[in-house]
Design brief:
The complex is a heterodimer.
Chain A lengths: L3 E4 L2 E5 L4 E7 L4 E9 L6 E7 L4 E4 L2 E6 L4 E6 L8 E9 L9 E2 L3 E6 L1
Parallel strand pairs in A: 2-11
Antiparallel strand pairs in A: 1-3, 3-8, 4-5, 4-9, 6-7, 7-8, 9-10, 9-11
Chain B lengths: L4 E3 L2 E4 L5 E6 L6 E7 L6 E7 L2 E5 L7 E4 L6 E5 L8 E8 L10 E2 L3 E5 L1
Parallel strand pairs in B: 2-11
Antiparallel strand pairs in B: 1-3, 3-8, 4-5, 4-9, 5-6, 7-8, 9-10, 9-11
The chains are: A mainly beta, B mainly beta.
Amino acid sequence: KNQVEQSPQSLIILEGKNCTLQCNYTVSPFSNLRWYKQDTGRGPVSLTIMTFSENTKSNGRYTATLDADTKQSSLHITASQLSDSASYICVVTPRPTDSWGKLQFGAGTQVVVTP
Amino acid sequence: EPEVTQTPSHQVTQMGQEVILRCVPISNHLYFYWYRQILGQKVEFLVSFYNNEISEKSEIFDDQFSVERPDGSNFTLKIRSTKLEDSAMYFCASSEAQGGLRDTQYFGPGTRLTVL
């Protein structure tokens, strides 16, 4: 059972445009939700982290939102650049304490930014 | 900035052979993890390690797998008798803490394992 679902699966956008990626999760309760960026052939790199009490978090041109009531998160990329081409992965850290390390990964949204 | 390193970057092996994947976590981190990602699929948790013992493992982490921290810096994943389906990218990660905002896991660049 996949506890973190992401949409769309892939996305092509023009350089300079904005886009929004979606994440729905069923992990409950959870400690925090992160968005990771994974370049092809590389390890994931953390972009944003939000606890269950936070609604939004920004990191440069990346803004993440969280609605803990509907169990939805989004990642908004503003003024996309070619270097934004990557897979964006929604990752949920569950509670209770015996599952702290067992991150639940979404399948990712593959973003391709074209000139 | 400190980072997690992994060696080798690519390992090719014959089915049934043993492989050891190596990782050097960030030096002040106390929690260590292995994940794998089969081509085109999502990242999957394998095992977490703290205080020289496994703290959690997934269903994937069967008796063919083992982890070890042989010294103060290395963290290894051993696959005793590799199978074709073990072909994947294996990521090592480490974190300063578990729970709260200091539990960010920093990932290494991965080792691509190809089993022939």
